[in-house]
Recover the amino acids of this structure.
């Protein structure tokens, strides 16, 4: 990162047009996000000159983006610590710090082994195998739509069908990895947070679980669309719908306060009033 970019990022962080922390509980689909002009994270991505918000959210790009962001953040932290007279390298020798990192690692392992993590990982694979099986049906559907357009049949209806199909596929693919990542993050944080009944503050884990639940709901709708469009794959589609529904109920049981979590911006009437005055939450 150049010095000029770093300076610009610091300036951006001082602007008051952004909703604090909005990017912590969103679905990272920035091009579709109605709050992207109010999001510091998005402004920084644009400033870095990357196309990360426009990229497909597959495992590889998700990891690359995370590493880039973490590298930049660590660099900036080092600079700020040096300005404050703190030597971060000296902390590497700290015994307590090492113990805390070892505990973090154990927490990560526990979250990765949790049934919710396993079920959301299984969902990733179910999607891949559904699309593999349905490949020829997609081609047939496309041929059918084209043939009907050539015959001059109901152009508006065909366009609506094509859009619904494209949107359903986009939604399913966008959330394919996202649901797993967010649920595992929620499980990770929950290990160091107070029990929901004892928590004074909203729990970060509930916010993460809430956005995972939202992604599951949108994916269920998208599968419903695919199910109607590809009746020959009804059995596999119903299997996926049932799997997602079980995952949803298990996530709600694990995070009973998730639905009540208020996400900055997205769940606030004031924030919506500013960007869409006619909309009522
Ligand atoms: S809040 Fe919106 S713009 Fe910001 S990171 Fe999330 S999806 Fe992207």
């Amino acid at each position: 990162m150049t010095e000029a970019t770093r300076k610009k990022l610091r300036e951006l962080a001082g602007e008051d047009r952004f909703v604090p922390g909005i990017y912590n509980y969103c679905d990272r689909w920035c091009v579709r996000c109605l709050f992207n002009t109010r999001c510091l994270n998005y402004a920084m991505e644009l400033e870095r000159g990357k196309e990360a918000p426009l990229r497909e959210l597959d495992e590889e790009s998700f990891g690359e983006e995370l590493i880039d962001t973490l590298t930049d953040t660590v660099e900036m932290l080092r600079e700020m610590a040096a300005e404050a007279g703190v030597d971060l390298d000296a902390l590497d020798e700290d015994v307590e710090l090492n113990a805390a990192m070892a505990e973090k690692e154990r927490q990560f392992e526990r979250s990765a082994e949790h049934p919710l993590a396993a079920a959301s990982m299984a969902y990733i694979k179910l999607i891949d195998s559904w699309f593999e099986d349905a490949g020829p049906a997609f081609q047939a559907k496309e041929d059918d739509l084209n043939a009907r357009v050539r015959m001059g049949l109901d152009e508006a209806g065909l366009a609506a069908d094509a859009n619904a199909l494209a949107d359903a596929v986009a939604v399913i693919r966008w959330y394919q990895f996202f649901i797993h990542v967010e649920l595992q993050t929620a499980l990770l944080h929950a290990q160091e947070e107070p029990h929901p009944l004892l928590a004074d503050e909203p729990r970060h884990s509930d916010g993460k679980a809430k956005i995972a639940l939202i992604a599951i709901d949108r994916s269920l709708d998208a599968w419903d669309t695919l199910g109607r469009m590809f009746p020959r794959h009804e059995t596999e589609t119903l299997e996926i719908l049932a799997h997602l529904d079980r995952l949803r109920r298990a996530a709600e049981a694990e995070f009973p306060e998730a639905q009540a979590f208020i996400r900055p911006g997205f769940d606030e009437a004031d924030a919506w009033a500013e960007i869409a005055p006619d909309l009522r939450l």
